[in-house]
Amino acid sequence: MFDRKAINRNFGKAATTYDDHAQLQSIVREDCITMAEQVWKEGSHILDLGSGTGALSEEIRQRELNWRITQADLSLGMCERAKTRNPEVVNASCDALPFAGQTFDGVFSSLMLQWVYDPLPVMREIARVTKPSSLCILSTLTQGTLQELRESFTAVDDAMHVNYFADPAPLTALCVHAGFKLLACEEETFIIDYPDIKALLKSLKAIGATTTQEKKRQGLMTPRQLQRAEAFYRERFASPKGKNKGLPATWQVLYILLERT
Fold first, then answer.
1. What is the pLDDT of residues 217-229, one digit of tens each?
2. What is the 8-class DSSP label of residue 142?
3. Which of 34, 85, 137, 149 is the most buried (most CB within 10 A)?
4. In terms of pTM, does the model score above 0.85?
5. Domains and CATH numbers, the chain
């Protein structure tokens, strides 16, 4: 189970560096916005759940999209950063939202659900705060994400260094169970190359993505252990062809379009 205090702390620390390192998050968010442009009417009141630094508010302003955005995030540090872009922000947990029922015309939540231990209460909260027939756009990481890093760390010890991610089928079934109709569901694979394992870990730290579902191992990984993990990574996953000698990291992203019944 995730430690909420750790999530709050780690994402709070990353608030000032997040946007500079969140390239994948930016791509996925833009994909979700493109989807939203096709289904949300002008003047819609949208809840940005897991709003982070407030990038959605900034991007719709640049695109001149006429939606009212209310932001919500568990991390106080992220909320403070988001407030500079949109003052309408609340510090709240996604499974206990401080909003009246049927407040919103839709929900936008990009790459937040993977930080939720049990998605069902979250989806029930989303159903509670949205109006009937509201359209909700979600994205989350799924099985296969960072599989190379996970396998490489098994060469070092049996501690959990990389989280396990959801299976799309049970996750979408939970959405239906919570009171939604599944309108669309699509999975996409992204491969991002990093110079070495330190660069990958540094990137994860810069976006606050260092909280694991289990307690961390005691003590820091030694340089020798990190070298062993990288040697395994390169031997098992790095391409032997071409000039690119970086380490590929897989990110599996699930896009979901839901209608509140």
1. 555 678 899 999 9
2. B
3. 137
4. yes
5. 4-146+162-192+253-260 (3.40.50.150)
Task: Write out the two tokens for 78.
Answer: 């992220």
Whole-angstrom Cα distance, residue 237 to residue 230?
Answer: 10
The strands making up 104-110's β-sheet, listed across from edge to edge, are 89-91, 68-73, 45-49, 104-110, 130-141, 247-260, 180-194
Model confidence pLDDT, tens digit, residues 47-81: 999 999 999 999 999 999 999 999 999 999 999 99
Q: What single DSSP character describes residue 166?
A: B
CB contact at 8 A, 139 and 28: yes
What pLDDT digit, counting tens, does each position of 139-156 carry? 999 999 999 999 999 888
The total number of residues shown for the chain amounts to 261
- CA distances to 72, 167, 213 from 210, rounded to whole Å, are 21, 21, 10
| Best CA proximity match to 45, nearest among 114, 121, 99 | 99
What does the angle CA 212 – CA 217 – CA 222 come to, to the nearest 5 degrees?
A: 115
